[in-house]
Input
Amino acid sequence: MQENITDVALELADYARAAREAGGTTSADLKAAIDRLFQADGETPEDALAILTYAQFFLATMVNQMDLEKEGGFIDPIFRCVHKAVGILESMTGRKFEEFF
Output
């Protein structure tokens, strides 16, 4: 049975909170939930918001590990586009990205 993006993202948020409370350790459950998120399907604005929340997180993580002076100027516009899409979907759905993260 195919899982739903929103359902998996909410479960992933629970695992992420537990990992943060445990001092930042990453559990096998958290890693498995991330894999499941990439396999999940969705068709609603909530699903789009959920998956874009994680896209934004992965982009932010990548940016923190990059030498931005050598990056070439592409990351900022990409990040802004994802951020804007998240804001639009928050307005459409009445939900906040923090629910999924």
In short: The chain is about 70% helix and 0% strand. The mean pLDDT is 87. Residues 5-100 form one domain. The radius of gyration is 14 Å.
